[in-house]
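Q: Hi! Curious about what Carbohydrate ABC transporter ATP-binding protein (CUT1 family) looks like structurally. Here's the sequence.
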Amino acid sequence: MAKITLSNLAHSYLPNPASEDDFALKELNHDWQDGAAYALLGSSGCGKSTLLNIISGLLRPSQGRILFDGQDVTDAPTAERNIAQVFQFPVVYDTMTVRDNLAFPLRNRGRDEGYVAERVQEIAHMIGMEHMLDRKARGLTADAKQKISLGRGMVRKDVNALLFDEPLTVIDPHMKWELRTQLKKLHHDFGHTMIYVTHDQTEALTFADKVVVMYDGRVVQIGTPEELFERPEHTFVGYFIGSPGMNLIPATVDGTTARIEGAEIPLGRGYKGLSGKVEIGVRPEFARLSQSEGLPVTVRRIEDVGRHKIIRAEFFGRDINIIAREEDAVSADMNRVIFDADHINVYADDWRVAGEAA
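A: Let's find out. The predicted structure is below.
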């Protein structure tokens, strides 16, 4: 395992980048702690795979350095970094059996056959392929081939880091859950440093100790699932995390009050001197319908999803989502919405403002 340090790291695919907009990965400084499990989360094109490929050595950064346990590996080839990487689409040796595919990384490093056989059996059980060990990889489904690729990435215990680039894309939904569970167990048992790229928030939040949210080539927040939910540091985090995402409403904020379309909303903290684009953000879980208080809304529809209801409403042409528990009363005369003051976040130019205790 290794502590991975990214120092002044940035990358552009252009030969002569002239501005920040020319960088696919904007400047980043961060330490990936030894033995931690991280998820890189964001929409397509945000820079996740670029960053992962720089860490693995498949791509040399335009600027900055990468260090493994303090040793500069910026110019070191992938083979010298002692990492295992699993890609989005399966990479297997078609002419080999499943057993030989899984054993290849160990045999390539001269491990004795007794250890190889034992470890291959463990991994085959983990990925549910014990009954297919003697089959050739050629002719297997993409799902099965990706499980082989995943198993081959996990078969070595001595790697500095395990890197996963959307590895479950071709895996069926039930097996996705099984393999995520096994990955978490692997991390718990052996303490590998793991970095997992995904655009799926469920995968990220259930796999990682910390989630690294990326937007437009920039890391906008690194935090635990709870921190991302309770205190999104950027409006993108609020929008991207959660289902539905955070409600964002333009407002004028002064002290402990937000003014929206002539209505006043109490805030849990105080704010001074805000400028630029000012918005309040509140999760649908911290909004509720009322008959007489709050912002006037028009309820468009109610979606009953079992344990709660999602209420789709509109406020002056802007969509507002409200989550009501199954036991909460919802009636036709409830046409106003109240926000929990302690769970309202305030943003200036998309970045969260901490505020002062009220």
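A: A fun detail: The two ends are 45 Å apart (CA to CA).
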